[in-house]
Each structure stands twice: as C-alpha cells, then as structure tokens.
C-alpha cells in the first residue's frame, strides 16, 4: 500500500536506475521475495531501492567502505563489503558478488534455501 502511494506521488522517471529499482521492489512484493541483493558501486541503487520500501531486507554488496558506511543510514539496507579483487571476466565477478551476498543473507537469517531472492546490478 505504501509502495503504491509512493509510486503515485513520484513523477514518472526516465532514469534507468530508478525504473529498475521500482521494478525490483514491485517484483519483491509480487513474489514474496526473501531479500533483494543489489550490487552497487556508488550506493545509488541501494538508496533508490530503500526509497520504495520493500518488505524484505536489501543486501547491498559493495567494494567501497565509504559506500557501505553511508548505506547503513538507509532504511532496510544491510551493506556488506566485498574485499576480493575483481575477477578478470566481468560475468564471473558478478557471480562472485551475488554468491557472496547470498551467503551473507543466509547467514544473517534473511532467507533460507529455496526462498526467492531478487538480484539487481546497477
């Protein structure tokens, strides 16, 4: 209900990041997701996801300590630092970060094996 109200009050956006965040939050409501995992460099994707207030936690995976600190101020966002260096192949690097976020989410009890999880890469 709050999500629908926020969508009505927010003007239509041409920003792909914001549209992706809206879609991810809407999907999380429709499929009762256990969490949203977002891979973020600047923290903006996590901020936009938080703005639309999904019912599930948002696990923000970042390599930046500053972004992780700032994300702690966002509602429902649980930032985690990913320390390993980027993999030579971009797809492998994304897989590594998503798996890291999944492991953290399970360890913190946000979801369990078999639950649906939304993954957003910005």
From TrEMBL:
Gene3D superfamilies named among the record's database cross-references: Pyruvate kinase, C-terminal domain (3.40.1380.20)
Family affiliation: Belongs to the pyruvate kinase family.
InterPro entries tied to this protein: Pyr_Knase (IPR001697), Pyrv_Knase_C (IPR015795), Pyrv_Knase_C_sf (IPR036918)
Pathway(s) per entry: Carbohydrate degradation; glycolysis; pyruvate from D-glyceraldehyde 3-phosphate: step 5/5
Entry keyword set: ATP-binding, Glycolysis, Kinase, Magnesium, Metal-binding, Nucleotide-binding, Pyruvate, Transferase
EC number: 2.7.1.40
Protein name: pyruvate kinase
Pyruvate kinase C-terminal domain segment(s): 19-122
CC cofactor: K(+); Mg(2+)
Species this chain originates from: Oncorhynchus mykiss
Pfam families in the cross-refs: PK_C
BP GO terms, sorted: response to glucose; response to growth hormone; response to insulin
Entry GO MF terms: ATP binding; kinase activity; magnesium ion binding; potassium ion binding; pyruvate kinase activity
